[in-house]
Amino acid sequence: MNIQNFIDNEFVDGVGTIDVFNPVTGEKVSQVASASAEDVNRALHAAQTASNTYGQLSINARKALIDELIAKLKGDEASIVDLLIQETGKTYDVASYDFNMLVDCLGYYVEEVKRHYAETIPDYDGGHLNFLSYQPVGVVAGLLTWNFPLLNLGYKLGPALASGCTSVFKISDKTPMASMRVAELINEVAFPKGTVNMLCGRGKVVSDAMAGSTIPRLLTMIGSTFAGQKLIEKSPTSVKRLSLELGGDAPVLVFEDADLDAAVADIVGLKLANAGQICVAPNRIFVHRNIYSDFIDKAKVLMESYQYVGEQSSGPELSPVVSEEILNSLLGFCEPEVHKGTIVTGGKRANRPGYFMQATLIKDVARDSALTCEEIFGPIMPVMPFDDDDDIFAIANDTEYGLSAYLYTQNLARALEAERRLLFGNILINEAYYSLQLPHGGLKQSGFGKDVSHLALDDYYDTKRISIKR
Description:
Strand 2 and strand 3 (10-12) form a beta hairpin. The protein is an alpha/beta fold. It folds into 2 domains: 2-246 and 445-469, Aldehyde Dehydrogenase, Chain A, domain 1 (3-Layer(aba) Sandwich), CATH 3.40.605.10; 250-435, 3-Layer(aba) Sandwich (Aldehyde Dehydrogenase, Chain A, domain 2). The protein contains 15 helices and 23 strands.
């Protein structure tokens, strides 16, 4: 399968191609065109031209186009999910969730813009009528990562289309197949030419060209903190707003009074979902010493019950990681001098084709090991005990990241203290709960701005104040 870039309603080749591999088998399944800086510039100019037309459409006119796209996506769900599975190795359930989040985001935001109300502002002397109005910012440049290709696209495309913005998206060259099928369906809808553009290519080439251009009004990214820093470095060619969802180092605090069975199921389930390749996956698990051994025993049993994708099993499935390179980096975390703990189960490459790693549980991990200071992004779960004399909230905060944190306790006062003291954008108590209507974003080096919820729309609008003399 040869995949081209989608620029100004045309599918075009690049300056070369990049191979795409199926993580389940390790075999090449397609190749995608590698965009040049000139391709990026063409796409941005196309979006700029389209913004003069698409941005002037009424909400109902935009809704008609978006509804048509949603219908086309639903009609092609089976083939899109199949492409997702081929390029990511996801389980069917996770691939279906990935697809439906794109559909849901498109539907959610086209309704949410109807409630994006402006306001009138009292005039102290009564001599003016003052009010606010919103207009789309114009061109949005988005850089998306590979772990949830369509969910990540939905997080950005949904508010862009609904608000009247035009867009250029860098799709990951590791997982371009499903996203470019979406581009084909967009091309079948009568959006003004150039409204949405999608391209792949080497990260530095495409990212630098997007960030360095003076055309985008909004730069938005889902990716690593390092990539976000580089994007910011290249962006001051003009005044741009930025919305960045970056790395995570999520702590989990399991207190003595926690519902232990529920906590273990929740933590292991999220840790091993999508092979741990989730920005909000548990990264550092702290368990009260009085229940520590029981937690380890229960987590071991559950983790060893997972079967690999493709095996005949009625139990939970573990998918592969996305590439050989990432698999090798994860195996590096399992070296004793790195984790400074004890491997309870796993720790090796699975004895089968593809990029599979064993579900790995490591106990008594040193709090200063690389395993607890870096985002793992894989099926490795480090666990450490804590005692009553530990300031566990300070320990949880001892990271440059601030995306998600998890707490398991029946103590209301402790839960309220967590809300006050934990320095994370998402604080989840007694369940790892995420939903489209809830704002998602980080603090500190995990970025700024919000994805999903009505708050995300703020990045896509300019706010104008109007005063009329009475």
